[in-house]
């Protein structure tokens, strides 16, 4: 704005002023949502108790002294602003406004942390190479399935001639985006364990329309279950039945359908690689590992004594115990609490447990 004022005072030519106005308008569109996000971060409805543990987690995962801005967002899914070079070193993470004080949804922040990990810590470049190779391998192994693509491209030129690359480039871009979302799911699962599955179902089941940049809902769930088995994480019984693909778009054109199928196949081909990559990121970062014994101890504190967790070590233990209590129909059945009061009380106890974890972490770091 100061530059525009100077241009006005300097009596600049019309084209210079017009170009400056276009730039200023673009900046307003880019930064106004960020300013609103930062303003909402001061709202007392946000769960400030979770800021410290999530800040520690983001610094461990990203390997540097991050600044975390935790806010609410008027999208019904967690959201992260990333990719702005002027905000490097700042993580802006938003939870859905109606659920911004719900500690049971903390595990979904693991998915959001996956986005900067994907682009800044190496997984994207590793997966890119494998994904492209698998797309070309799929086309060459099954040319009859891709006759529409090969009408404008010679099979031998698919990876060497620019015009031939255009035949499969859209599938590659969709497949890479699907791979990114899958990696983020896997990272969230690896950090938070079973609680990530519960939180995902709470917010997203049974699914809905899926753009080609995301895996099918059933595919996404199957990938999580596959990774849970690899990570030795228990999954809720019949978890896959909570989601379906009824929102799948069925009227896409033939060319689009072929490209989307190719993207789906390609993204699935790199799932084993991404299971390993997500595991390595969390292991190398030294994120505290949860344990079933700790989950049981915290659950007993919550259910038997109605007190916050004592001596928690891992954030995931608190959240896994919280979900266990949330799904327990007999929880506090001998009290006068109705279901709504029970849920409010449980969430307050979980937030206090997270505070206890932060205090203990700070005390251990100071000694």
Topology overview:
Layout: H1 2-9, H2 14-40, H3 51-62, E1 67-73, E2 79-81, E3 90-96, H4 108-120, H5 123-141, H6 147-150, H7 162-192, H8 194-204, H9 217-231, H10 254-269, H11 271-285, H12 292-305, H13 315-326, H14 339-366
Parallel strand pairs: 1-3
Antiparallel strand pairs: 2-3
Helix pairs in contact: 1-2, 3-4, 4-7, 5-7, 5-10, 7-8, 7-9, 7-10, 7-11, 8-13, 9-11, 12-13, 13-14
Class by SSE composition: mainly alpha
| Tally of domains | 3
Classify the helix fraction into a percent range. Answer: 55-70%
Quaternary arrangement of the chains shown? Answer: single chain
Provide the residue-averaged pLDDT: 87
The percentage of residues in β strands lies in: under 5%
* Spatial sequence of strands, sheet with the most strands: 1-3-2
The ordered string of helix (H) and strand (E) elements is HHHEEEHHHHHHHHHHH
The number of helical runs is 14
Low-confidence runs (pLDDT<50, min 5 residues)? none
Radius of gyration equals 24 Å
Please give the largest β-sheet: 3 strands, mixed
3D shape:
globular
Architecture overview:
Helices cover 61% and strands 5% of the residues. It has helices spanning 2-9, 14-40, 51-62, 108-120, 123-141, 147-150, 162-192, 194-204, 217-231, 254-269, 271-285, 292-305, 315-326, 339-366; strands at 67-73, 79-81, 90-96. The chain contains 14 helices and three strands. The protein has three domains: 1-32; 118-285, no CATH class; 292-366, no CATH class. The chain has a three-stranded mixed β-sheet with strand order 1-3-2, sandwiched between helices. The protein is mainly alpha-helical and 367 residues long. A hairpin with an 8-residue loop joins strand 2 and strand 3 (90-96).
């Amino acid at each position: 704005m100061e530059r525009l004022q100077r241009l006005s005072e300097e009596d600049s030519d019309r084209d210079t002023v017009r170009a400056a106005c276009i730039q200023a308008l673009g900046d307003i569109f880019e930064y106004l949502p960020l300013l609103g996000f930062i303003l909402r971060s001061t709202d007392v409805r946000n769960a400030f108790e979770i800021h410290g543990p999530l800040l520690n987690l983001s610094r461990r995962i990203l390997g540097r002294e991050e600044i975390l801005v935790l806010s609410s967002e008027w999208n019904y899914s967690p959201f992260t602003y990333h990719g702005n070079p002027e905000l490097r070193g700042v993580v802006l993470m938003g939870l859905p406004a109606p659920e911004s004080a719900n500690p049971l949804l903390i595990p979904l922040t693991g998915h959001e942390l996956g986005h900067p990990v994907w682009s800044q810590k190496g997984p994207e470049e590793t997966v890119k190479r494998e994904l492209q190779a698998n797309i070309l391998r799929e086309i060459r192994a099954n040319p009859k399935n891709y006759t529409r693509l090969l009408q404008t491209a010679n099979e031998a030129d698919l990876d060497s001639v620019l015009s031939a690359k255009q035949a499969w480039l859209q599938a590659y871009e969709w497949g890479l985006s699907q791979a990114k979302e899958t990696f983020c799911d896997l990272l969230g699962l690896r950090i938070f364990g079973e609680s990530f599955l519960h939180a995902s179902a709470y917010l997203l089941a049974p699914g809905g329309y899926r753009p080609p940049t995301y895996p099918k809902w059933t595919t996404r769930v199957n990938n999580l279950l596959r990774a849970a088995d690899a990570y030795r994480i228990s999954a809720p019984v019949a978890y896959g039945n909570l989601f379906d693909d009824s929102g799948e778009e069925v009227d896409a054109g033939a060319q689009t359908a072929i490209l989307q199928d190719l993207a789906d196949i390609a993204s699935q081909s790199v799932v084993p690689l991404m299971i390993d990559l997500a595991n390595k990121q969390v292991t190398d970062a030294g994120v505290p590992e949860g344990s079933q014994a700790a989950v049981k101890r915290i659950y007993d504190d919550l259910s038997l004594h109605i007190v916050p967790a004592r001596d928690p070590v891992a954030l995931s233990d608190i959240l896994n115990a919280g979900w266990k209590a949330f799904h327990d129909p007999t929880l506090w059945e001998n009290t006068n609490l109705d279901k709504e009061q029970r849920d409010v009380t449980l969430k307050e106890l979980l937030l206090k447990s997270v505070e206890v974890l932060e205090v203990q972490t700070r005390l251990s770091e100071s000694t």
